[in-house]
Design brief:
Chains A, B, C, D: Keywords: Lyase, Pyridoxal phosphate. Chains A, B, C, D: InterPro entries: ArAA_b-elim_lyase/Thr_aldolase, Low_specificity_L-TA_bact, PyrdxlP-dep_Trfase, PyrdxlP-dep_Trfase_major, PyrdxlP-dep_Trfase_small. Chains A, B, C, D: This is L-threonine aldolase. Chains A, B, C, D: Pfam families: Beta_elim_lyase. Chains A, B, C, D: Its EC number is 4.1.2.48. The structure is a homotetramer. Chain A is of the alpha/beta class. The first copy, chain A, folds into two domains: 241 residues, Aspartate Aminotransferase, domain 2 (3-Layer(aba) Sandwich); 91 residues, Aspartate Aminotransferase, domain 1 (Alpha-Beta Complex). The first copy, chain A, is built from 14 helices and eleven strands. In chain A, strands 1-7-6-5-4-2-3 form a seven-stranded mixed beta sheet, sandwiched between helices. In chain A, strand 8 and strand 9 form a beta hairpin. Chain A is globular, with a radius of gyration of 20 Å. Chain A starts with 12 loop residues before the first helix and ends with a helix. The mean pLDDT of chain A is 97. At the A-B interface, helix 1, helix 3, helix 5, helix 10 and helix 11 of A face helix 1, helix 3, helix 5, helix 10 and helix 11 of B.
């Protein structure tokens, strides 16, 4: 039973079927195909506004290319100190922005403290040649801690962006889980709250490899085509990326899969909190659970074949991610094992 | 009937089957899966030497990442003036090398003239602070003109590289077609002839999206993992890239598909040469045919639904690419149409 | 007697005096000083139009920073194949443009053949995601061959730039010599002919180290301050750069020095052409002479202490650069020596 | 009376004299002159070890080029959160390292807390493809807060570097002040304590514009020449940079000037501490004093013509920098004025 990441799952059957269906016949390469041409319209319906959509294959590419459209090499991008773009992308954001600086900000539960952003902006870098120029804020939705920003919280950052001539990016590798977790509309969580560009994740949510960079302000996308090709991220057989994304949006599959994953995380969180000596660190608002389990018990669970990531060096806090295809029985089985090991301790 | 590119085809059935098979169960992410771990060994068998192999999804990524391992930002990479890395990758090689210069060289039939390379090296840039430092030569195999470099020709460039402290890269987007066309071993065409790094293409040859960067000198790959991630080219569900590559190597599928494509190009070339007023520009050694067809006849053929790229601005030379799944009847049908239109002219 | 470059000379006495004068008292750092604030106005008078001026210390910095304002990383900059930015700046233009491609063009006498530029633009790169996007043309004035572009010739390139959405840059490391050589106004040779940005050289013309990037369209300079600092080219004690430039413009010193240098080149060229077996390669329009002198005679001249650069690997063509402080006697002495050696041969 | 920075001073008379002396006659360009060839030897004497020395004109260039030799684009450089390379160089370090990440660390008095570095390294980034690879630590000597690292403190960081495969850089824009302040040998504070590369500042200490990048491990300098030229930092008339540096080392001028500046800072610090309601924030160990002066008094002092930088947004802490040419009377005059204003309050 593998809770290490949603990435350990394969693809949903609907996605495999879509790929097979798209494999019929010839199609123009590099995005000039029926599937790819459908993308803008399909996303515009889901987001209830006109948007420009570009498929890529990885979340890091989506984030880095999006930021490349927002920040020049002499720019500054503000992000949470534990965010994926800061910690887990091996400098891809610096690479694709031609060397912009990621300014790291603190905040509880994986969420940027707006006061910390205000303080950073208060240093007066804007317009002063010695300093990187404030260009963008990047929020992760859901965060690395499995928490979410509410529409109001997003709007607060958007307000700071507007007031300081910056753009607002959202890393939505688990955007589906956030939308499902809050039960709000995709629009409410993005452009209505002031988001300019969204990295819309599908891979973690049951695709093979597909993400969409969604621009709510088309003018920001002016250079995207060239940046994507320059980054080696233009697929020749683009239809296979686009078909995955279309299948995700078809009949709300993306939210259905996210709801399943979130429900398993709730089940896991509630179960763990009923067990003595075990606790849950942050509010579970998406498909991740961060649980404090004593190191020795965690090790015995691992020895029984359960897989999950230690989140702190002292092996006291652990991350559990529920993929779209985890079942109620999967989680129940794990909870039983925890109970047994705690009892035996 | 679409001859514009091998990219207009979908994936071979064996590749789709491999993808479906790999979709079973959970697997560690980011390359720590059974399929990915198999890659080095599988390629080492095919190339008859130990090699280090890294899957990526696009040919541009393969080329640019490979060159990034060979050339620093103050370096020079020598390539044919019509090569893909020079003309068709929107500065990806410059991007991934942190700004190296592509020095363009002439040569007939898409092949670098070795004398041009010697002359360029004779300028005495090496060791002089004013000039970009010669770092690599990149050969395209098969070339953009559908021709190939023989092992001896490759070795001639390798010799120049060795003598000037440079490395030799091979852009093998159509490497399978070159191997099949010459009926030589993969080893003879690469490391035995002095190639250091190969971009091994599978996408054009019947994969969804899969290329392998093959290092014949492992020490050159030291930074590849970090460069790949920094470029956003590390797949979380890597097994799906690796499974495509393994399926290609399985029972020689890659050469079988390439031989089919090449045979159709031969059929097309021979048929066209039998038609009055039509000629073929370069020796057909892989799966591409460049044919001189009068502009008016070409237009009438296009009006009948045949698709192929004009190769010169005056619409007198045209490119025909045979994908792995073109049939004898496809080509015969096109040849009939050409004969009819030439007759009617 | 050293004719290798105008760089072998020191600074003119007026420049040294200006530096000493500027050394009095304290002054705000980083350009907020009296000298630096004067620059825009002083250059605007000389160029008869409002311009924005930024001092830097090297010609390579001036060129690369100017191009960085004109071309993005996915852009293409068109330049002569023998130009300084292509051959002699160790990829600084690629570096400061974040990886733009320098597309090299041929042309006699160091001047781009406009037909070659037209042909390159005719490839249809603009707006196509596979190709670098045409962004700028860079002309060298005077060229590496000591020739000049007339205002009409410059305008022809400007016209191609306008028609293709590109900007026009002029590398004027020897701009003073070109203006003096043609006896035209600085305005006629730049913005009136369509130049957008000029690298105005002073170092070769008798400064210690000072160049000015002159923007004739202020909006193109919007990011210059940040790019200059990011490149490490913002001087803390900026007054010492600005004072050199102001001294150059004062009472036309820059043209006086350039006229002296040019006159010596004319004297040298005319003298050489009177000597049997010696000839001059290109029209001498600035301060450089390229002379065909038999290799054995050239070597004997070098053995007598005369210094000049071989321009071709076979040591048959040689470059002579006259710095501002070469005297009539200097040149006459050299001409005597050539006559003697030719006579002795 | 201007205490804003050591940059508001001009050059010391000895430096001006050296420049004038170097202006005699012709000299080979680009560093192949008598002055430049002397540099390695002159610095090797001062540092009591063989070193490779490269002159550049700005401190930002020195730092960024040095770091470019130490950290690849996928690397991480650890530095104090208030350091010049983090805050005041407009992303030059990111630019010259091709996009490395600056990881910011806290620490009192402008000095990195070694425990914070240990914690950062304890995250386990090394060898893991997701994370930037630890490449270098950069210490500022003297720090932005006017404090210094003792040789033992430097050695502690060197030890962490060695244990983690990293290099140690020292930003010595005010290195002279640190050496003078501690009265230790240049060797003790650098290579003997484990520093690999030093940015040796001369500009703030009384040069026009001259810094030296000093490599104590020559192999780290292998690419420096190309990086410097690529950055536009190779001076054609290099003798004028080198002559400034040689004059600084001549008869210990650099330490004499630094001692003068430090003595004025001591005088200022001691004087301020004797005034009621005024205090000094950090130990004064170089030529900077950070003084808490009530905002209203500070404003009145500024109205009387004294210039100094507010260091905190609330205008309660102020920076005073003593340049090499501040006199005892200058400082005494300011102290009198403070006393008067405090008395009047």
């Amino acid at each position: 039973m593998d809770f290490r990441s949603d990435n350990v799952a394969g693809a949903a059957p609907e996605i495999l079927a879509a790929l097979a269906a798209a494999n019929d016949g010839t199609a123009s390469a590099y995005g000039d195909d029926d599937w790819s041409r459908e993308l803008d319209a399909a996303f515009s319906v889901v987001f209830d506004t006109e948007c420009r959509v570009f498929p890529v294959a990885t979340g890091t590419a989506a984030n880095a290319l999006a930021l490349g459209c927002l920040a020049p090499g002499f720019g500054a991008v503000f992000a949470h100190q534990d965010s994926h773009i800061v910690v887990d992308e091996c400098n891809a954001p610096e690479f694709f922005t031609d060397g912009a600086k990621l300014v790291t900000l603190p905040g509880a539960g994986g969420k940027i403290d707006p006061a910390a952003l205000e303080a950073a902006l208060g240093q007066g870098w804007s317009g002063v040649q010695h300093h990187p120029q404030p260009a963008a804020v990047s929020l992760t939705q859901a965060t690395e801690s499995g928490t979410v920003y509410s529409p109001d919280e997003v709007a607060q950052f958007a307000h700071l962006c507007r007031a300081n001539g910056m753009h607002l990016h959202m890393d939505g590798a688990r955007f589906a889980n956030a939308v499902a977790g809050m039960n709000v509309s995709p629009a409410a969580l993005t452009w209505r709250a002031g988001v300019d560009v969204l990295s819309f994740g599908a891979t973690k949510n049951g695709a093979f490899a597909a993400e969409a960079v969604v621009f709510f302000k088309p003018e920001l996308a002016a250079s995207f085509l060239y940046r994507r090709k320059r980054g080696g991220h233009l697929f020749s057989k683009m239809r296979f990326l686009s078909a995955q994304l279309l299948a995700m949006l078809q009949d709300g599959l993306w939210l259905r899969l996210a709801r399943q994953a979130n429900a398993r995380a709730q089940q896991l969180s509630e179960g763990l909190q009923r067990i003595d000596g075990v606790s849950v660190a942050w509010l579970v608002q998406a498909n991740e659970v961060f649980a404090a389990i004593p190191a020795d018990i965690a090790e015995r669970l691992r020895a029984r074949g359960f897989r999950f990531h230690p989140w702190t060096p002292d092996n006291s806090l652990h991350r559990f991610v529920c993929a779209f295809n985890k079942t109620e029985d999967d989680v129940a089985g794990f909870l039983r094992a925890v109970t047994e090991e705690v009892g035996a301790a």
